[in-house]
From TrEMBL:
Name of the molecule in the record: MFS transporter
Keywords noted in UniProt: Cell membrane, Membrane, Transmembrane, Transmembrane helix, Transport
Membrane topology type: Multi-pass membrane protein
Membrane is among the record's keywords: yes
Transmembrane segments: 12-36, 48-69, 81-107, 142-164, 170-189, 249-273, 285-304, 310-331, 343-365, 371-392
Organism: Loigolactobacillus binensis
Length: 404
């Protein structure tokens, strides 16, 4: 009974931590170029380059350092890694609100990525503690924290920046991360036996000991593509909304709502779809979710008004609610607990790479074709992902064939 209470308490606290961490990474996105513009006299091309650098460097550094933090998590525990990440982000994000030059901002954005790791270690804590029969529902619920925080962050950040100024958003975000640190310190309980560094398996041996290594690699690829799909519309969403509204009306507000719609639906539907994966298997939910996502993005390229776009963005929230928890649950069920830290950190590295690739592809495709081409590109990526996972999951879906 005590264990059941503990994992549910951990889930609640870490969900809030994931939510605030997701917001911490996304709250400044809507106005980052405008903030950079106040730090110097830059030409249009310089401003574009500096804004792209300041945005991307956080995720690039995160992709590089995540495996290092994952190894430390497997050796010393995942809770201490959550505390390290929350405290580091508290100081780096708050300091961003005090910078007087662009170089300082870029350095601090890089450090913010370097201190990352809260979300993947929160996943590892919940995955290790939740009973297997509830793992899908638990991971489904936890996944909504980061997704909803990331999607709602720009909306909240825009409101704060518009009301109190750009710098205030950094201070608010830093305060939220300080709350995450204190809550994690006092309310999260982890049963962990430290592992001597000499006893940690090398990465190559980890994958050799997995029953389905190709499936876990497929999960990494899926995480990258899901994140790239979600982020691909970031550079063009407000421009596309303006086109649909014929450049009239509250374009900024409508863009924020359109961007946030998937997060609202994901929050509502992810626990139910996670419970479904406990009953029918996360592999089936993942395959159906990828097919559904592909079918949702295709008609986005043909929308004629804002209502059609809004409806399809709602359906994107359903696909996210199916995909992200399924990925986490599959890794939970097919990876030994002793290497959760590293496997989940590798997954975070792929997610960070998706955060960089998605907006870059979106910007390139919209420049070469038009805004509608971004949705076609995203649908193609999801279709390729569906094919990869179909073959990677065959040993689980057809065990008798595998044995034969």
């Amino acid at each position: 009974m005590q264990k059941m209470t503990t994992w549910r308490q951990n889930l609640a606290v870490l969900w809030a931590g994931n939510f605030m961490t997701g917001m911490g990474f996304s709250m400044t996105m809507p106005f980052l170029p405008l903030f950079i513009k106040t730090l110097g006299d830059f030409s249009k091309s310089e401003l574009t380059l500096l804004s792209g650098t300041a945005f991307a460097i956080t995720f690039l550094v995160k992709a590089i350092v995540s495996p290092f933090w994952g190894r430390l998590a497997d050796a010393h525990g995942r809770k201490i890694m959550c505390l390290r990440a929350a405290l580091g982000m508290t100081f780096t994000i708050t300091a961003c609100g005090m910078v007087q030059g662009i170089v300082s901002l870029i350095i601090l954005r890089a450090l913010q990525g370097g201190f990352s790791g809260y979300i993947n270690n929160a996943n590892a804590i919940v995955a290790a503690a939740a009973p297997r029969e509830h793992s899908g529902q638990a991971m489904g619920t936890l996944a909504t924290g980061n997704v909803v925080g990331t999607l709602l962050g720009p909306l909240l950040g825009g409101v704060i920046a518009g009301t109190f100024g750009y710098r205030s958003t950094f201070f608010v975000t830093g305060a939220l991360m300080a709350i995450v640190f204190v809550a994690t310190l006092l309310l999260v309980h982890e049963q962990f036996t430290p592992i001597a560094p000499a006893d940690l398996l090398p990465t190559k041996q980890i994958f050799q000991r997995l029953h389905y290594p190709q499936l876990i690699i497929g999960m990494f690829i899926t995480t990258l593509i899901i994140q790239a799909a979600n982020m691909s519309v970031t550079p063009i969403i407000s421009l596309f909304v303006g086109e649909l509204l014929h450049q009239h009306g509250p374009i900024a507000m409508v863009s924020g709502v359109i961007a946030a719609l998937p997060g609202v639906v994901t929050l509502i539907s992810a626990p139910s779809l996670g419970a479904l994966s406990d009953r029918v298997g996360p592999e089936k939910v993942l395959l159906v979710g990828l097919l559904f996502a592909t079918l949702v993005f295709i008609p986005m390229s043909f929308v004629q008004n804002i209502w059609q776009l809004g409806f399809l963005r709602l359906l994107v929230g359903v696909s996210d609610a199916a995909l992200l928890p399924a990925v986490q649950t599959i890794m939970t069920q097919h990876v030994p607990q002793s290497v959760f830290g590293r496997i989940f950190s590798y997954n975070q590295s792929f997610q960070a790479i998706g955060s960089v690739i998605g907006p870059m592809l979106g910007a390139v495709i919209s420049g070469q074709f038009d805004y509608r081409g971004v949705f076609v590109m995203t649908a193609i990526l999801l279709l390729i992902n569906l094919i990869v996972i179909h073959f990677a999951s065959r040993p689980l879906l057809h065990p008798t064939e595998n044995e034969a």
